[in-house]
Amino acid sequence: MVSAFLCVFAVLAILIAGNATDHLMGVHALLFFSAIVAWLVGIALWAGKLGDRDPFDETEYEDTLVKFGVAASMFWSLAGLLVGVIIACQLTWPNLFYFEELGWTNFGRLRPLHTSAVIFAFGGNVLLATSFHVVQRTTRARLFGGMWPWFVFWGYQLFIVLAATGYLMGITQSKEYAEPEWYADLWLTIVWVAYLIIFLGTLWKRKEPHIYVANWFYLSFIVTIAMLHIVNNLSLPVSLGSAKSYQLFAGVQDALTQWWYGHNAVGFFLTTGFLAIMYYYIPKRVDRPVYSYRLSIVHFWSLIFIYIWAGPHHLHYTALPQWAQTLGMTFSIMLWMPSWGGMINGVMTLSGAWDKLRTDPVVRMMVVSLAFYGMATFEGPLMSVRAVNSLSHYTEWGIGHVHSGALGWVGFISFGALYCLTQWLYKRKSLYSIALVEWHFWLATIGIVFYIVALWFAGIMEGLMWRAYNDFGFLEYSFVETVEAKHISYIIRTVGGLLYLSGALIMSYNLIRTALGHERINQPTDANPVSQPPAAAELQPAE
């Protein structure tokens, strides 16, 4: 079934390549066709080695796919963070890192490459891997769909490659967090619908009557992102052979739709999905039940109801009607309460196991992620207040806020999950090196502090300089002077990014050695006092 489906798309790709009206569309059509052919060859080689073995044995979990997801997450984290450091260097030393002859290296093309790589490539693969792992363990059922979960995984990688190569070639629809053009959007829609069906199908055939709260968070993420993606990317292509399209919406309607999408991409991709990780991996790692299951249910329903309304706070002091701006601001302030309820629930899950903060750096990393989550979900509502927004908007403060949440909350909870998955899936008694996890934790934490503090200073200073007037009523500072004043902060930001990237490199080395089964000499005896979920692939009681 999957092979036949791919054959149809291979034929469509070669037809579009032969009738492309612009060179870039032809390149992408050939790239897509080549990827599909390689995919089909891979399926044929895999099927030829099966013999009499049933690859979709319902008595075993599909853990090989989760292992691939861990590997993809590790790769894309390094790629995305490296591009982030490069563009930080471009902003800091433009005379050294600007190459006029190499247009694909310009900041305008590398910046969306960075954001998409860290959010959708790294974050998306973490969510795919963990959701497939968690839904199987909590339902005591193998993933629904046979080969289709593999279609979702490889289809998603193909979307990432299409998006990334498109940015470098200059293919973009110029919408924040939604830059890929119409054909990449259509492919992602197909992949995402398959993802939703697989998740729902697995829940449908569950052997555990109760649907654990983490699955509700995953499901809200999958359903809402599908809705946001489809509505925000409604467009009409110039032709089937052209990469260019025109948006259905225009003017203030387009702006409101874009930030309804943009803020809820943060809310449902970078928040609810990773809260699902928190609700499974922290209790499992510390071998304690969730502090308050009732609070987790209140957290879920209040969060998903309130978050969807908060987008208009990105459009203060614009043509958007004042009542819509105020609506977004009001719901943003309300978000503080359920967000902190979830943070407290996660932290208090350590009740009776606080010593693990000292003995297990993986637990410490996940708990510190909750601290950053709490900080970011206080700062966000604060910045949505119109009076504060008049100072903070369009400044480096916004960049600092985004990265405190992205690096501190999303990054740390993801790293914690990857450490857990690698140890558990490969049936290791411990990670290769607990000392390297300590190095990763402290390098990354110091890097985050450097990054966000530098941009807080830069952003507030920038906002104050923009609104300063002299005695004659003219602006006190030119734009170039405000840029020059941020130079030291930019240098500190770059150092912070390098430290964070260094931590990710150490993690990758540690995970590879763990997967290979290497054992570290003189490993501390108390380095792994964590629970060991049943590591066998066979179906177990709900974990």
From TrEMBL:
Binds 1 copper ion per subunit, denoted as copper B. Binds 2 heme groups per subunit, denoted as high- and low-spin. It comes from Henriciella barbarensis. Heme b 1; low-spin binds at residues 114, 403. Keywords: Cell membrane, Copper, Electron transport, Heme, Iron, Membrane, Metal-binding, Oxidoreductase, Respiratory chain, Translocase, Transmembrane, Transmembrane helix, Transport. The chain crosses the membrane at residues 30-47, 68-93, 113-135, 147-170, 182-204, 216-240, 260-281, 293-310, 330-350, 362-382, 402-421, 441-468, 488-512. This is cytochrome-c oxidase. GO terms for cellular component: plasma membrane. CDD domains: cbb3_Oxidase_I. Heme b 2; high-spin binds at residue 401. Cu cation binds at residues 263, 313-314. It catalyses: 4 Fe(II)-[cytochrome c] + O2 + 8 H(+)(in) = 4 Fe(III)-[cytochrome c] + 2 H2O + 4 H(+)(out). It is found in: Cell membrane.
